[in-house]
Amino acid sequence: MIDQLVGSGLTRAMVILAHPDDEALLCGGTIAELTRSDVETTVVCFSDGAQGRDEAFKQVCTLLGAQSRLLKFETGSMRVDAELVGATDDLIRESEPQLVITHARSGIQNQDHIALHDAVRLSTRRWPSPAIVLGVEPPISSSDFDGNVFCEVGQSWASKVAAVTAYQNLLDRPYMCEEYLQTRASWWAQVAGQPGALMEAFELAVWRPAGACGGHRRGRPRVRRRRPSR
Length: 230
Description:
- This protein is α/β, with parallel strands linked by helices.
- The protein has seven helices and seven strands.
- It has a seven-stranded mixed β-sheet with strand order 3-2-1-4-5-7-6, sandwiched between helices.
- α2 (22-36) packs antiparallel against α6 (157-168).
- It starts with a helix and ends in a 23-residue tail after the last strand.
């Protein structure tokens, strides 16, 4: 579980995502859980997404208890270049987050998600922080996404649903409905060995125990579990 991975010393987290609505759909429950645990959490979105999503983004971050930063890269045109990597470099160097959540590279992703994942990975090789980087499940489920770290979000489920609803009036995509979200969260709970719970899933991208939050653990954590049949 994510709390076992990060330990008790986590105080700063950063969520780096491409578009407004990604934070609500993909990890809104986890953001709420972090802020409920008094972890200083900043959500950075790299594009405004148009359609009024910039205002919705600010409202959602306030709802989840997180700070918000909105950059102005063009939606659909992000690529791994000096500008994008320079932006992720600046975020990580200035804020020194212990935990970073970004897009996973696997699964059904769009160009912006992949480019931002790659830029974050390049930046994390340059600095001693963060100790942990997690890639979040994409909005459309895919067998290519290999979730192996989980966050129990049952206590924050109402906040996640409210966050998604703030965008649903603007976008109304099929994967935004609560039934779909709850089905995914219930399935990941089975994968994690906690049927009946609600989970958000991540892929472990970076784990540096020497600088990990709290600094207690040694070796690679055992976070993989056998999946139940779909």
